[in-house]
Every structure is written in structure tokens, then in C-alpha cells.
What we know:
Two copies of one chain form a homodimer. Chain A has helices spanning 2-20, 23-34, 39-46, 50-62, 84-104, 110-114; strands spanning 37-38, 66-71, 74-79. In chain A, strands 1-3-2 form a three-stranded antiparallel sheet. In chain A, β2 and β3 (74-79) form a beta hairpin. In chain A, α1 (2-20) packs antiparallel against α4, α1 (2-20) crosses α5 (84-104) and α3 (39-46) crosses α4 (50-62). Chain A contains six helices and three strands, in the order ααβααββαα. Chain A has a single domain (2-106), classed as Arc Repressor Mutant, subunit A, CATH 1.10.10. Chain A is elongated, with a radius of gyration of 19 Å. Chains A and B meet through α1, α2 and α5 of A and α1, α2 and α5 of B. The structure holds a DNA duplex. Chains A, B: Keywords: DNA-binding. Chains A, B: GO terms for molecular function: DNA binding; DNA-binding transcription factor activity.
Amino acid sequence: MVKRMLKYEAEAVDRVFHAVADANRRAIIERLTRSPATVSELAALLGVTVAATVQHLRVLQDSELVSSEKVGRVRTCRIDPAGLHNAEAWLTRQRTAWELRLDRLGAVLGDEAKESGR
Amino acid sequence: MVKRMLKYEAEAVDRVFHAVADANRRAIIERLTRSPATVSELAALLGVTVAATVQHLRVLQDSELVSSEKVGRVRTCRIDPAGLHNAEAWLTRQRTAWELRLDRLGAVLGDEAKESGR
DNA sequence: AAGTTACTTAAGCCAACACTTGACTTTCTG
DNA sequence: CAGAAAGTCAAGTGTTGGCTTAAGTAACTT
């Protein structure tokens, strides 16, 4: 049961990271963070065809990062924060574990610690 | 100049998200979070060939998520937290912006707000 | 009604990916 | 020294990804 939950989570994490690994899809997210936009507007922003944009939007919607609603003939897209949770949780979980470990093993990884800015 | 910096950052973000979008690479990260491991150990964990594992490790090293050192004939891999910064910064930046916007536009997105758990 | 706009869907193209196998190189071990 | 162990490198294979063009459909506009 826990296993099953984790599997589902893994798939969600897969989808979100994959969605966000593409520069054009990140550009869409950044644009929608400012305000909702239509499909054509997003296509113009990316400099690709509307068809390509629709495909990106499908990926973003499947990972619950974007939602959209069609009224009349124009589809308006907006951010849907739901999808971010899993990915962010995973990142944070790893980073927290790393930092704990790094604190404890400071000496072992001391080489890096010497380079101040890193 | 700012533009150039952002471009570099975009490429780094690209690499990290792509690295982390693969379930096997995430499994490597999770394993290394507990302790360093050899290439063979990681291969056994994933159930793929050593060659495939080496390829994953190259991706992880290019995105500065993992570092490794070879002593004798065995290569020991460990976590390198450097690569996480850009990706995490991007995620946090977006999420923060979304939340601000969601607070302001609560009424517009009210449908979702009504569904308590989301 | 005819044309334009906004999107949708399907098909195909080419590059990138995740693997594999097989041929090495290097480093231990008996 | 012979052989096993640990990893490296190169080539090949099947799949997926991002993009295009082309052919729709539905909703405005004139």
C-alpha cells in the first residue's frame, strides 16, 4: 500500500520533472506565472507553431502544472500549482538529507568546503 | 550580460531537470544520499548493465549532482549538492510567484479554492 | 452565407535517449 | 604470470520527444 503510493508518486515526479526539463515548457510556465494567456499568445512567445504549443500544453496539463478552459473559440491557460508539490517535495527531501549528511561528513568532503562560494 | 547569465542558468536548469526526470537516475541519487557507492553497486541496484549505469553517471556528473573518484580499479560515487541550486531556485521562484498571484486572484481561481484539499 | 480566426488532430521526420552487446584497459588476486 | 574483477568505450537498436505540415472543426465577423 505504501509501495503503491510511492509508485504513483514516482510517476507524478517523473511527469513533472520531464515537463519542466524543456526550456519552452518552462517559458510557458514563466509566462503564465505573470497572467493567463491564450494558445496563440504562447505560440507567438515561443516562436513555434500553434500545434507544437498545444502539445506542450498537453504535457503541462498531464503533470498538473497548467490548467486551461475554452470559452468560445479561444482557450485560456493558467498556472495550476497542484503538480508542483510532488516534485518540490522530492527535491527538498533529497536536499535535506544531503545537508544533514554533509554536516556530519564535513571532513570527508572538506575539499569543497574550502572553496568558499560553493 | 544579464541575458547571458540567464542563458547559462537556463542551460544548467535544463541539465538538472533532465537528469532528475529519469527514475533510474533519481534512484541513484536516493541511494547516494545514504552513502557513497561503486558503479557496480549502483548497476546492481538498478538492474541494468554497468555500461548503462556509467552513462547515467555521466549525466548526473554533467549536471553536478554527483561526483566520483577512482581509486585503483573501483570508482566511488557520491552526492555533489552543487547542481541542485539552480533547479531549486527556479522551482522556488515560480512557486513563490504563483502563490502571490493566487493570493491576489483568489476569487478568480475560486473554483479550486472551494475543493478544500487542493 | 462566406471568410477569417482559433484551435485540434493526425501523420511523418529527425534527433536525442536508455539500453544492450562486445571489445578493450587497468588493477587486483591466487 | 594467468585469470578474474571493475570499469571504459564504441556501435547498434528500439523508443520517445519536439517539431512540422496538412486537413479538419467550431466560433466569430462582415
